[in-house]
C-alpha cells in the first residue's frame, strides 16, 4: 500500500484543461521526495477539465478530482477541496500556473515547523512580484482591493498587517482551516482573506515572496460579478455573519424594483393609462426585473436556466403576490390601530420582504 499523502495541494479550476498536466508535472518537480497529492476541484467545466483530471488520475494515484455540478465559485471550491483532505498539511493554489509552485516547500515547511498558522505566497514583499497581472487596470484593482482589505484587517482581533491579503496562494494545517470552515463566507475569489477574518483566533502569518506569473493558456474568470462578491464577502464579515448577506442582496434588489415600478408607472401614465392599469404594469415589470436580478446576482450560485427559469418566474410572481397582500394587510391593521401611516407602511414592507426572501430561498432558488 502506498504511504498516505501528508500534503494536499488544493486547486480550484474552471476551464483549465490545457493547464492540468503541466501543473501536475510542475508539482512533481517542486515536491520531489514528499508524500503529496493534488485535489482538483472543477465546477463541471464545459472544456472537459474533469476528463483530463480523470485521465491523469488513472495513471497517477497522487491525482484526485472533485467535480461539482450546478455550482460555481473559487472560494467555495477551495473549501470543499480542503475539507475532502485527510492530510495534516494543505496548500491552495490556482490551476493556471500563475502561482509559483517552487515556493511550496518553503511555505509548507514554515507551517510544519509551527512558525506560523498560514504561510502566504506574497507578491508584495521583497522578492515577490505581480508582473503576471494582465493589465494596468488589474494592477489598480488589486491595489484597491488590498487597501480595502487592510482597512478591515487590523483592529479586528489584532489581525496582522499583510502585504498581500488578495493572494490566493497559501499553506496551512488542514485542522486550522477546518476549524474556521463553519464561519467562512465562501463568496467569490478571496478565500485567504475570508480565512483570516474567520479564524477562531488571530492567525500567525508569514509571507513568502512569490512571483505571480503571466497566464499562458486559458483565460481569467475574474469579472464584475466576482468583484460584487468581494464586496459581499467583506460585508458579511463586517456584519459578523449576523445578517445573511443574501438577504441584504435580496432587499437591495427589492429596492431597485420599487424604482422600476415607479418609472414604468410614470411612463404608462404619460401614455394615458389610468392609475390602476399603470400600477399593475409597473408591478409586473418590477417583478420580472427583480426575478432576473436575483437569478443573476443574489442567487448566482444556484442560477436557474432553461425550463426551470419559466417555472421559477411564475412561482416568484405568485410568492411576491402573496407577500404584497401580507404587506398591505399588516400595514392596514397597524394604521387602524395607531393612525400614523409611515411606521405602518414600513412594517408592512418589512414583513413582505422577509416573506419573499424566506420563500424564494427555500422554494425557488433552493439547493438542488
Ligand atoms: N472550481 C472553480 N470554480 N474554480 C474557479 C472558478 C470557479 O467558479 N473561478 C475561477 N476558478 C479557478 C481558475 O480556474 C484558476 O485556477 C483560479 O481559480 C484563479 O482564477 P483566475 O480567473 O485565473 O483568477 P485571477 O488570475 O484573475 O486571480 C487570481 O490571482 C489573484 C491575485 O490577484 C486568484 O488566484 C486570486 O485568488 C488571486 O488572489
Ligand atoms: Mn489566473
Structure report:
It is a single chain. The chain has 368 residues and is α/β, with parallel strands linked by helices. It folds into 2 domains: 7-221, Spore Coat Polysaccharide Biosynthesis Protein SpsA, Chain A; 245-364, no CATH class. Helix content is 53%, strand content 10%. It is built from 12 helices and 7 strands. It has a 7-stranded mixed sheet with strand order 3-2-1-4-6-5-7, with helices on both faces. Strand 1, helix 1 and strand 2 form a beta-alpha-beta unit. The chain is elongated and about 80 Å long. The model has no long low-confidence stretch (mean pLDDT 89). The protein binds guanosine-5'-diphosphate-alpha-D-mannose and manganese (II) ion. Manganese (II) ion (MN) is lined by residues 94, 96, 98, 215, 220. Guanosine-5'-diphosphate-alpha-D-mannose is lined by residues 12-14, 16, 41-43, 72-74, 77, 94-96, 98, 142, 166-168, 189, 220-222.
